[in-house]
Design a protein that fits this description.
heterodimer; A: mainly beta; Methylamine Dehydrogenase, Chain H; 2 domains; about 10% helix; about 45% strand; B: mainly alpha; 5 helical Cullin repeat like; three-stranded mixed beta sheet; three-stranded antiparallel beta sheet
Chain lengths: ~450, ~675
């Protein structure tokens, strides 16, 4: 092997540590160590002399180990926040985040921690951000947390009731709120997730006039569009489409007679089929309406409704719906957490195929029920019910895991993103963060 | 929770006391100057990084950022002044050097201010340090009025130098181009490209004017081509790739498009190149002219009129008119010539008309035994067959079969009638009526000897083949006669059947009037006239004499045997005086017959198409018919329409009830 020529000696806060330039190269050009490879500074030419860095030596050691092995091991005596600050100093924060938890797998999730919020009312929605942060909507406020679970300034749009929140990217959050009668307030706004400032307010135009409106559910597409269900003052019921880059309204799908779009509880953009799923559920309306909209042809390409369906004794009402493009089906769930499936390939579904396997807890309803919610991630189906989340896998959607903790009451919403699952409880203003541990050493 | 928060705030407060923003900035400002002065030996990267970090951490990001902008602006203004002061030729070198220095400094400054770049700039919505450095250089150096013009002039001068044959520093130019592009494509466009294109247009305008006056077309094109290549090279050596299309457009427009007509019509232009086989020049002209709008169209126009002109000259040339293709002697030569004929044939649109004439000539050659070689005839028919398909040549091939069958039949006839060997020999060619271009004509009266023979043959043949009908084509045969003239001269006369009939009459008479001959032979008068003409009026072939001695044969003329007939040859071939060329009415006749033949073909094609397609609109049907028939001829769309209508009348087709343009096949 011979003598290693690329040794580098550091004196960090009085402790001398040695490493190699190969290890430091793992930090990348955009870090403080990146400058060490810049010949202009002549930093590593002399292997004998040591470089003094006036920082915490314990944290430097942990970070150096991260560069060496790609793994993060934080001794109990180092507070995480201190480590994060040091990582930020060296420009290694992204390395720390990447090493902190593993790639998402619904069957290996562990509760990482629970966060207590200060909101006065019930939770409305929780949304995972693309890089591990999240935002939580309570009443008229949205609280934003980064991946280190540091809270940023909260968001509000004219202090109107928040109906839905969504991340455009890790720096931008859109919230949709109810309108305030006669004031032109409300609607939909784009906020900086770091500073909480309002960057843009979206308008609805009807016959060339700007109208005030209530923005309901939100969805985003990869070609930079924002969709929102809208209820306007004068007949602007339907789904609006805006451009994320220009902020301009580019389309509006007016609600057909006898159908519900403007009140929708859920929008889901389907990349594969270029369609938008719009679902309005009981109890917002007396009936359920689920449809797929094709904006290019301005028509409903698929629809289903329980209008006129006879109700049996064990009343099954659809409470949430999610399209599963890979299976060409829509999954729905009722208040007893029965999963049901509808075929997307025929243009109108006739009936729901209820899966009896997933019938889990008939009749045992808690005092303050939360209606089930559905999510889909990498072929795994998630369903929340009361205080736990069930994970279903495989072509038959077998129950494979159950996430539960006892404190905080029922789960009113949950969201998956940035390799994390966030679950918001309704009673205690608490949300849980579930992560997949990093892979085993061997 | 709230206790913790208070503690934290206290700490932060302490920190804020811990740094003096002015002092920290002064230190960083000094460092920035030292970096620009390339004197970094006294600087510690870690210390500078920590200080910049502290300023951002303690909310002095604004001060740090505006300080950086201010200091860098001051340095760049200084650089601009020193650049303005540079003398003469070293301006670009100096600019390149300063640009490199600035970039190096910028990189180091960014490394110091990395924390500000990462944390403060995105949140405050400021321009990142890298971009800031470029922007400030652009505003303070490039956009400085003096430098802007001087830079442009220096660059244009270099280009001009290279165009006039000087060697320039391409590497330096490339660096400056890269600088302008780094500052933004619009900077490259504004500061250099726009003017470069204008100046280039002027340069090439002047050059083409000069060249047009003194050069031949070929030389001009050669220079234009090399200029084009030079410009493309120039772009690849030291300009931005997006300039290539623009500069080649300039050269195309100024050198070629503006001089398009002059170049084509020059004395040494297109026609001269075509006439003198200047393939290289022609290739060059094609390559260059295709780049400009209308270029190839103009070539096409001039070429068309030239070809038409040459074609007309060829047709007008009396010597070549008779035999447009010269036949060689050896078989190979014949092959080559036939191939050439086939090439011409491919360009014929009305192949069926050709067929009709070809058939007639072939018939004559075969019947009169005039073919040079059967093999050649057959080989040409094989060529026609490969070109046009079996149907086209089946009749022609049928003619050959008839010839062969006839030979066998004759052999059979004489074997079965051995007694006949002593009398005159009859050779009959039995022609299938469909295959040969025969017309039904009145059979003339044959001499008694012959007609007896003919009847024998007829009964022999009909005995062999039941249910056939023979009719004698007396206008097509030949005969060899042995004649003894007044003074005992013996000759063998090779004559046509008609001529034979006439001459045989003189075995029993010395003088016969036209009327008598006509009555005795029943030869149609037009044929009889030309027959008598060739017997009595052709010099050295006049076996008959006529009274009165006029040039034409009249109905009141009388004929004698020419006792004074002399010839050096024993065998005398007496031709028939026929008009060599077809007369106008004959032409029309042929044409009409061809048209007539086309009718069933067109109808059959329409029915075949409709049978397979069932439903088709008018335009597509016509197109399809044309496509299927074009190997034989180009059908006239109105003719096709007429046939469609006729087919509708006869209820092969009907119009669609909803769309009148659609036809439906009825079955």
């Amino acid at each position: 092997m011979g003598v290693q020529k690329d040794r580098v000696k550091f004196n960090v806060g009085g402790r001398v540590m040695e490493t190699t330039s190969t290890t430091l190269a793992n930090a990348g050009r955009n870090s403080m160590f990146g400058a060490m490879f810049d010949e202009n500074w002549n930093l590593i030419t002399n292997t004998e002399s040591e470089r003094f860095i006036d920082r915490n030596p314990d944290c430097f050691g942990v970070l150096l180990d991260l560069l060496r092995t790609g793994e993060l091991h934080v001794p109990p005596n180092i507070p995480e926040k201190l480590l994060y600050r040091e990582a930020l100093y060296y420009g290694l924060l992204d390395h720390v985040r990447a090493a902190k938890w593993g790639p998402f797998d619904g069957n290996r999730l562990r509760l990482s921690c629970s966060m207590q919020g200060q909101a006065p009312g019930d939770g409305t929605a929780i949304r995972a951000g693309p890089d591990g942060g999240c935002c939580v909507a309570h009443g008229s406020m949205v609280h934003v947390y980064d991946w280190m679970l540091e809270e940023h300034p909260p968001l509000n749009l004219d202090y109107q009731r928040v109906n839905d929140v969504g991340w455009v990217d890790s720096d931008n959050v859109v919230i949709g709120v109810s309108e305030r009668l006669g004031r032109g307030d409300g609607g939909m706004g784009l906020f900086s997730s770091h500073t909480g400032e309002l960057r843009y307010k979206f308008h609805v135009c009807h016959e060339n006039q700007v109208k005030s409106y209530t923005a309901g559910a939100l969805s985003f597409s990869s070609d930079y569009k924002i969709f929102s269900s809208c209820k306007g003052r004068s007949n602007e019921y339907g789904v609006g489409v805006w451009d994320q880059v220009t902020g301009k309204q580019i389309d509006f799908f007016y609600e057909p007679l006898g159908w519900s779009l403007g009140d929708a509880d859920k929008l889901q953009w389907l990349e594969g089929s270029n369609c938008l799923l719009v679902a309005t559920m009981f109890p917002r309306k007396d009936n359920c309406y689920i449809s797929l909209l094709d904006f290019r042809e301005k028509r409903m390409v698929w629809c289903w409704s329980d209008v006129g369906a006879p109700f049996a004794v064990d009343e099954k009402r659809v409470r949430d719906a999610i399209a599963m493009e890979d299976n060409s089906s829509i999954c729905v769930v009722n208040e007893f957490e029965d999963l049901g499936f509808m075929d997307l390939r025929s243009s109108a579904a006739t009936s729901i195929r209820w899966s009896s396997r997933s019938r889990l807890m008939k009749g045992k309803m808690p005092e303050e029920p939360c209606y089930p919610k559905l999510a889909l991630h990498a072929g795994q189906l998630f369903s929340s019910m009361n205080d736990c989340i069930s994970v279903f896998c495989g072509p038959e959607w077998v129950l494979t895991s159950r996430l539960r903790r006892s404190y905080g009451g029922s789960i009113c919403d949950f969201s998956i993103g940035g390799d994390r699952l966030f679950a918001l409880h309704s009673e205690e203003n608490v949300f849980d963060i579930w992560e997949t541990p990093t892979p085993p050493i061997i | 929770m709230s206790d913790q928060k208070k503690n934290f705030r206290l700490e932060e407060f302490k920190h804020r006391e811990g740094i003096d923003p002015d002092k920290t900035w002064t230190m960083l400002e000094h460092a920035i100057h030292e970096i620009y002065n390339q004197n970094i030996s006294g600087l510690s990267y870690e210390v500078l990084y920590r200080n910049a970090y502290n300023m951002v951490l303690h909310k002095f990001g604004d001060k740090l950022y505006s300080g950086l902008v201010e200091t860098m602006t001051a340095r760049l203004k200084e650089i601009a002044r020193s650049l303005e002061a540079t003398q003469g030729g070293s301006f670009l070198e100096e600019m390149n050097k300063k640009w490199n220095d600035h970039n190096k400094a910028l990189k180091m400054i960014r490394e110091i201010m990395m924390y500000m770049d990462r944390i403060y700039i995105p949140h405050a919505g400021k321009t990142p340090v890298d971009q800031l450095g470029l922007n400030l250089w652009r505003e303070n150096v490039i956009y400085s009025n003096q430098i802007s013009t001087r830079l442009l002039n220096a660059l244009l001068e270099l280009v001009y130098g290279e165009r006039t044959g000087e060697v320039i520093n391409r590497g330096l130019f490339r660096n400056i181009t890269k600088m302008l592009m780094d500052l933004g494509p619009s900077v490259y466009g504004q500061e250099f490209e726009t003017q470069f294109l204008l100046v280039s247009a002027e340069f090439y305008q002047a050059e083409s004017q000069k060249l047009i006056e003194c050069c031949a077309c070929g030389d001009f094109l050669k220079i234009a081509e090399s200029r084009m290549k030079q410009e493309i090279d120039r772009v690849s050596y030291y300009l931005d790739p997006m300039t290539e299309k623009k500069i080649t457009n300039v050269v195309e427009k100024v050198m070629i498009e503006n001089n398009l007509l002059i170049l084509i019509h020059m004395d040494s232009g297109l026609v001269s190149m075509l006439c003198n086989d200047k393939y290289e020049d022609l290739g060059r002209m094609y390559k260059l002219f295709r780049r400009v709008a209308n270029g190839l169209f103009k070539i096409y126009e001039v070429m068309t009129s030239h070809i038409k002109e040459s074609g007309k000259q060829l047709v007008m040339d009396r010597d070549r008119l008779k035999d447009p293709v010269e036949f060689g002697v050896s078989e190979d030569d014949i092959e080559i010539t036939l191939d050439k004929v086939m090439m011409l044939f491919r360009y014929l649109q009305e192949k069926d008309e050709f067929e009709s004439y070809y058939k007639r000539h072939l018939a004559k050659r075969l019947l009169y035994g005039k073919t040079v070689s059967d093999d050649v005839e057959r080989s040409f028919i094989v060529k026609l067959r490969t070109e046009c398909g079996y149907q086209f040549t089946s009749k022609l091939e049928g003619m050959f079969t008839d010839m062969k069958t006839s030979r066998d039949t004759m052999q059979g006839f004489y074997t079965s009638h051995p007694k006949l060997r002593d009398g005159p020999t009859l050779t009959v060619q039995v022609l299938t009526a469909e295959v040969w271009p025969t017309q039904s004509i009145v059979t003339c009266n044959l001499p008694a000897e012959m007609s007896e023979l003919c009847e024998k043959f007829q009964s022999y043949y009909l005995g062999m083949h039941m249910g056939r009908k023979l009719s004698w084509q007396t206008d097509m045969g030949t005969a060899d006669l042995k004649a003894t003239f007044g003074k005992g001269q013996k000759h063998q006369l090779n004559v046509s059947t008609y001529q034979m009939c006439v001459l045989m009459l003189f075995n029993n008479a010395d003088r016969l009037s036209y009327k008598e001959i006509e009555q005795a032979t029943k030869i149609p008068s037009s044929n009889l006239k030309s027959c008598l003409q060739s017997l009595a009026l052709v010099k050295k072939r006049n076996v008959l004499r006529k009274e009165p001695m006029s040039k034409d044969v009249g109905e009141d003329d009388a004929f004698f045997v020419n006792d004074k007939f002399r010839s050096k040859l024993y065998k005398v071939k007496i031709g028939t005086v026929v008009a060599q060329k077809e007369s106008e009415p004959e032409k029309l006749e042929t044409r009409k017959r061809v048209e007539e033949d086309r009718k069933p073909l067109i109808e059959a094609t329409i029915v075949r198409i409709m049978k397979s397609r069932k439903l088709l609109d008018h335009n597509n049907l016509v197109a399809e018919v044309t496509k299927q028939l074009q190997s034989r001829f180009l059908p006239n769309p109105t003719a096709v329409k007429k046939h469609i209508e006729s087919l509708i009348e006869r209820e092969f087709l009907e119009r669609d009830a909803r769309d009148r343009k659609m036809y439906r096949y009825l079955y």
